[in-house]
Amino acid sequence: MNTVERLAQSDENADGVDGVSLQLVQTLTARGETFAAAESLTAGLLCATVASVPGASAVLRGGVVTYATDTKALLADVPKDALAAYGPVSELTARYMALGVANKAVADWGISLTGVAGPAMQDGHPVGEVWCGLKPPGVSYLDGVTAVRLPVNKEGSRAEIRRQAVVLALELLLQNLEGE
C-alpha cells in the first residue's frame, strides 16, 4: 500500500488534526529539524494548525499564502513559465512551491498545498483536486522534491476540503519523517 492509499484509510482523517500536529511538532523537535509551508487553497490553515501546538515555534520557520496565481511566483519562487504551462494546480507547481518556501525560510523541510476547494471547477480542475509538495532536508534542486495528489473527499464543503487537505498534508510529512 502506498502513502496516498494509507492516508485515504487513516482514522486520523476524521478529526485527528490535533494529534497529528502534536506528533509532528514532537518528531521534528526530537530531530532538531524545521519546516516551512506554502499554502494556496488552505490559506494559512496548515501553519495556524501547527502553531496551536505548544513548542511549535521550535520547528515552524514560517509560511506564505499563495492564494493568487501570481503570488506563487512572487512568494514561493515558482517560475512564471511553469505556471503558464502547468497552471497553479499541478504536481509541478506543488513541487516548486515546497522547494521555494523551504529555501526562502531556510527550513529543513518544505511543504506546499495547492488545489481546488470549490464550489466550482477551476481552469478544468475538479473540486477536491489537491496537490501536496514535499521537500526533504538536504535537497536543493527540484529533482529531489516530490508531490502527491491527496485523497480528499470531493463531496465535502469548502471548509471540509481545506481541513482534510491540512490533515492529509501533515500526515504525509509525518510519514516521511518516520520513514527516514
Automatic annotation (TrEMBL):
Domain of life: Bacteria
Residue ranges of every copy of the CinA C-terminal domain listed in the record: 22-176
InterPro entries, per database record: CinA-like_C, CinA_C
NCBIfam families xrefs: PncC_domain (TIGR00199)
Protein name, per record: Nicotinamide-nucleotide amidohydrolase family protein
